[in-house]
């Protein structure tokens, strides 16, 4: 490090090496899961179809989403979530057209967040401690679970959040504003994350005016995106309304929170797994995040999830939702510990130990299983079934097989409503989303054969069917 405190070339090489190794590990985990049939049409194929549409200079249409959810085959995913930032990935599809491109991009995005987080921690704690924070971030369970659940727009958030926090630390207001504006292009509720950051800025001299703007602008944007922009692209204003226990709409929910706060408080722990998730999330900082005003940034987005009474995926440790806040928790922990110099080394060691101790309980542990790298007879049969579908065909495909086919065919989700596509790839041996049970899938097979479909491939539990004739109108 030179006299001005600027990281040396060697220091930069080390932090980029940490991020590079993390990116490789993330990509391997993603591809292993696809290989083992653990990825799904919901959600990897949705994003693949959307980004492919962008790469062809069209709106981000995902037929798999539109048809399954009865929006129509021409449905744009901008009517599902306000995520125009996905267009930035379109040029990558000119180099390689397929879901693997998304998985590599996600790995790079999530891993690269370690770099600005390291810069942030380095200013506060010193170079060595900052490396520990970066390593703890790359191993943290919220990041690992985001990698393990296909691809999502959440991949952009840790990097943008880390940049925004680091630029605030450096006193660069213009850069903070730019990062916040880009965040608003990631998803409609990122306005709540920006508003949360505004709450933090309200506590800091010289930043209060910007903080007030972030609070007002962030809340307003979330309302605009969910009530105007998303419906403009064919979505519904109430599609993700998850607060029936509080009221029928925003006004009713706010009224309940104000007049009956005990009901709202009760929802924060109902079901109890919400509290487990919250404890695990704060646990990546050994609860030190609670000692910093930066934790205020997480409050609106956490409230959005934990006050919900439907969409259980929002509040469990699995999936990608915790990745939206993991950088905030680490940064808040750093901010707290910088005031406690005697505890710094112990804290940094502790967060690394916590990350390592959690690994066996989350998805990264799959990489230690030799069975993850080879297909058994059932998985090989699945791959051969998918190979039986010709390029460019329209096919209804079992959820876990969609990612194997989407790069060369038009994939629909095989769901509980027959779509009468010319090709159908079906699994009967176990329940596959969104069917209720395996028997329902077996019944579908019998019904397809009875309606004129011919079996072109059958092995183990996998069946490929074909019906000649024109494609159906979707």
Summarize the structure.
This protein is mainly alpha-helical and about 475 residues long. About 55% of the residues lie in helices and about 5% in strands.
Can you walk through the features of this model?
With 474 residues, this protein is mainly α. The chain has two domains: 9-367, no CATH class; 377-466, no CATH class. It has 21 helices and five strands. The protein has helices at 9-35, 41-55, 63-68, 90-95, 99-112, 114-125, 127-139, 141-148, 157-169, 173-183, 190-201, 208-232, 250-259, 261-267, 273-283, 299-306, 326-337, 344-358, 377-387, 402-405, 438-450, and strands spanning 394-397, 410-413, 423-427, 454-459, 462-466. A five-stranded mixed β-sheet has the order 2-1-3-5-4, sandwiched between helices. Helix 20 (402-405) links the parallel strand 1 and strand 2 (410-413). The longest helix has 27 residues, at 9-35.
